[in-house]
Amino acid sequence: MPDKQHIKNEIVLRGIPASHGISIGQAYLFLKDTPVVEERIIQPKEIEFEQERFSRSLDKSSKELNKILLFAQEKIGEAKAKVLDAQIMVLEDPVLIGSIKKRITSEKRNAEFIVSDEIGKYAALMLKAEDEYMHERAHDMEDLKNRIIRNLLQERLISKLEGSVIVVAHTLTPADTMILSRNHVLGYATDRGGITSHAALFSRSLKIPAIVGLGDVSRSVINGDLLILDGYSGTLIVNPTDERMKHYEKKRERMNKFEQQLTNLKDLPAETIDGHRVELSANIELLDELDYVVVQGSQGIGLYRTESLLLNSDDFPSEEEQYQEYKKVTDRVHPHRVILRTFDIGGDKIAPATADESNPFLGWRGIRISLDRPDIFLNQLRAMLRASVRKNLSIMFPMVATLEEVRMAKRYVRKAKAELRSQGVKFNDKTPIGVMIEVPSAALMISQIAAEVDFVSIGTNDLTQYLLAVDRGNTLVSKLYRQFDPSVVNTLKHVINGAHKQGIWAGICGEMGGNPLAVPLLIGLGIDELSVVPAVLPEIKKIIRSLNYSLMKELAVQAMGASTSDEVERMMSKFFKKHLPEIPLDN
Questions:
Q1: Percent of the chain with pLDDT over 90
Q2: For the chain, N or C: smaller number of CB within 10 Å?
Q3: What are the residues facing 22 on neighbouring strands?
């Protein structure tokens, strides 16, 4: 009788590579069933007992999380483990605890129901936001809610694994990632999540290959299925053929050798064979990532997402809190440059009612909110300027659509400077100011906008969505999201030329900049800086140092004359195979 594994069809799934490496092993489905919560009316004499049950569950949940925190500190260091502090802080939040206890008494309902309803409301509101930071926090709140309820019901979550496995889950919280890592985990594969999620960050810190955003992997595999997890390309293969197995065993060996070569590039510049230098920097959102960025050989921070400061708070951080955060970044990276992007958030963070915007991607967000709320904007600008004294800090505005927005934002910068001067506070009066080009109107007006700023950074993710009128999060149209569409390529060239004509530099901080296949094209188009996720820094540097700038310019000319995205991709693949055969792509 044939082995069950060999009569199954091979399935190839694609997601987002979150932590590099190739793993081959059996699947273990880590499915956390949501506790069943029944609404129950309690008698007045039961209220005290119900309050005690709730208090005991809080205490037990706190002990569990503190135990995980200690383990995380030992495995990945105290700084990175701080992510777990957020859930512990919620357990100690007097407002939330007081509200739940008050409702148990006044509504005379069981603790499980009140906990589910009260914390669930917070999570639901966060999920309505359009930015992934709030989604991340919503999942953490859901996880915390379920932990408290499980302890109320005295249920246990099994996390003991047998043997070496690849963990498959709908989503993984930082706590899940740490608990499971106590076993011999070969890799993580999840339905949800992004490259900047905390679980992805933990996977990289633990050096465990991971793929996130696979869609429905948790419904596509069963326990024991043989998996190949390619954390370089984001490819997960279920029930691979013998031929595929041999291919990936060779690729794993090849990639191990390639990564050994990359370690020698850490302190070398991102410079082509014929002497053209490109600045290579990193996109980050957490202080915890700084050490990793330095180890990877970054020449600075091309995008620091300051909205991460809002992740663990129900309110905006004070000027002093922001200053301390920004100062740590500039001190750690000095003398290299740090570009701080002002808050790029949705209106739901300011006014919950705006969470119901029919199209938040075209709504109240980014610089629009900052200009409408000068109290928040000035607070942040003062903190940034105070952190600029070492002269390696730049400020960047997101979601700029018009010249008027740029000029208005600059007026607030001048006002923040005047306020600091009046207080005798030191700052760098020549702090560079830049904007993100991610709205087509800003791309078309690049000459006028570039005349007002010191640099521009192209956000290719949103620019591509807006140019092609495609929401890449909508599965019905996501296949139309083509980063190499000729309209995108020619828009990039238009923006770069417009910036250069005004004597300023142009960078890219979107996903395209970290795509190895796109790098020769982008440099050929004339881009001055690439800001990418830290994990791909060495590989991108290797590509740059292996090519002649003249060849990349020829590729760019060909791509601008193409008629379809498929044509552009074929050109780039052919270029790679001819000039960079030693650099493995996703095959």
A1: 57
A2: N
A3: 230
Report domain 272-579's class: alpha beta
Q: What is the rounded distance in angstroms from the CA atom of residue 51 to the CA atom of residue 45? A: 11
Domain 4-32+158-247 falls in which CATH fold?
Glucose Oxidase; domain 1 (3.50.30)
Q: Could you report the per-residue pLDDT of 443-496, keeping only the tens digit for each?
A: 999 999 999 999 999 999 889 989 998 876 565 666 777 889 999 999 999 999
221 touches 234 (CB < 8 A): no
Domain residue limits, the chain: 4-32+158-247, 44-152, 272-579
State the DSSP string of 292-328: HHHHTT-SEEEEEEGGGGGTT-SSPPPHHHHHHHHHH
Considering the entire predicted model, what is its pTM?
0.71
Tokens of 215: 């869609």
Residue with tokens 């921070």: 301
- Map tokens 């909508």 to a residue: 474
Which CATH number fits the domain 44-152, given the four candidates 1.10.443.10, 1.10.274.10, 3.30.420.140, 2.30.30.320? 1.10.274.10
Q: How far apart are CA 381 and CA 371, in angstroms?
A: 12
| Residues with catalytic roles | 198, 509
- Sign (positive or negative) of CA dihedral 230, 478, 363, 437: positive
DSSP 172-220: --HHHHHHHTTS-EEEEEESS--TTSHHHHHHHHHT--EEE--SSHHHH
Distance CA 30, CA 47 (A): 36
Q: What is the pLDDT of residues 544-575, one digit of tens each?
A: 999 999 999 999 999 999 999 999 999 999 99
